[in-house]
Amino acid sequence: MEYAIEMRRALHKIPEPGFKEFKTQAFILEQIRAYPPDRVTYDTFETGVFVRVKGLTGNRTIGYRADIDGLPIEEATGLPFCSEHPGFMHACGHDMHTSIALGLMKRIIELPVMDDVVFLFQPAEEGPGGAEPMIKSPLFEKYRPSEMYGLHVAPEYPVGTIASRPGVLFASAREVHITIYGQSGHAAFPHLTIDTVVAQAALIMQLQTIVSRSINPMNCSVITIGKVDAGIRENVIAGRAVLDGTMRALNGEDMEKLERRVRDIIRGIEASFGVKIDLQFGNRYYEVVNDRHIVDKFSSFVKMNANYIECDAAMTGEDFGFMLKEIPGMMFWLGVDNPTSGLHQPTLNPDESAIPFVIDLLDHYFREYV
Ligand SMILES: CC(=O)N[C@@H](CCC[C@H](N)C(=O)O)C(=O)O
């Protein structure tokens, strides 16, 4: 079996949450330590790894980033190499991203390219975000590339397709964590309680008016409440309710407006229902903004070798945006032909033939065009 596919299957079995990618990091280090130290240098950062592969001239340093974390989703693919970690799955394709980086690294160690190539195996993309601390760490200066690339699997495109665009490719994203405090009591005496479930329901519905009533309809934004929790049984009024969600926008102004309106609505809910609400915003992921010149260079190359689509921006978030704020570069979608499933679904099953396809493509690009 092709080395990188073997890597993917091994990684698929051990999905781990952000900053707890201990087995994944050990697995990556095991691969790196098999190479001669005069070809490869590396450092660990939290559960991530920086690697430099020496080029023939080393005049420049090209960066390639792979995110390595999994998601708290119970896998339902039935694959023979499915997750061995109950309740966790590589449901966003980071096993593909990491094995592509390992395969590309092996290729250019065995047959060097002109430039040094730096690989960033980054933890916690799904949250709380590993890209920002990784590039703020002093180690980043030792590995700093002059341009950077990253990819994300795209189940909706067939294998052999690359999609990207100059400018904003992914939205900015910010998690929202809300806890509602009231007064629990008997279901039969609601007037003696402060029911957080009713406040929670009203809050969810009001939050859903922000995008439609406060954001310019010509712009795109999203508020999703992905998790709600409250109560202990049918005849006890819940004294505490929790909501977790995420907000997306394509520019900073809209993201700030989303935050402002969430605060306003929460004040209103407190006044109308007599509850107290604790609101916490997570890290803001910046938009992924692709460098125009680098997209031109890369897309011209791809058009000669594969199918290139100039796609629309997507409302997915990606902390690769932090890296692209610091270093010019680009992210692109890699077709993995799984249109009946999708990202963050328990049935996600990317076509592995995309792995050798993109390793060949990037190897060729890094060797002759970058
Ligand atoms: C590519 C992808 O699916 N990324 C995640 C990033 C999540 C960021 C953060 N945890 C949030 O929810 O805001 C996405 O959900 O788009």
Would you identify the CATH architecture of the largest domain? 3-Layer(aba) Sandwich
Question: What letter string, H or E per element, gives the SSE order?
Answer: HHEEEHEHHEEEEEHEEEHEEHEHEH
- Mean pLDDT figure: 97
Any idea what the shape is?
A: elongated
Report the CATH superfamily of the largest domain: Zn peptidases
Proportion of residues in β-strands: 25-35%
CATH class categorisation of the largest domain:
Alpha Beta
Query: Using only CA atoms, what is the Rg?
Result: 23 Å
Biggest beta sheet attributes: 8 strands, mixed
Bound molecules: the ligand CC(=O)N[C@@H](CCC[C@H](N)C(=O)O)C(=O)O
Strand order of the largest sheet: 1-2-4-3-5-16-6-15
Give the N-to-C terminal Cα separation.
29 Å
Total count of domains:
2
Main structural class? alpha/beta
- Give the tally of β-strands: 16
Low-confidence segments = none
What share of the residues lie within helices? Answer: 25-40%
- What CATH calls the topology of the largest domain is Aminopeptidase
Number of helices: 10
Cofactor: Mn(2+)
Domain Peptidase M20 dimerisation: 174-267
Protein name: N-acetyldiaminopimelate deacetylase
Catalytic activity: N-acetyl-(2S,6S)-2,6-diaminopimelate + H2O = (2S,6S)-2,6-diaminopimelate + acetate
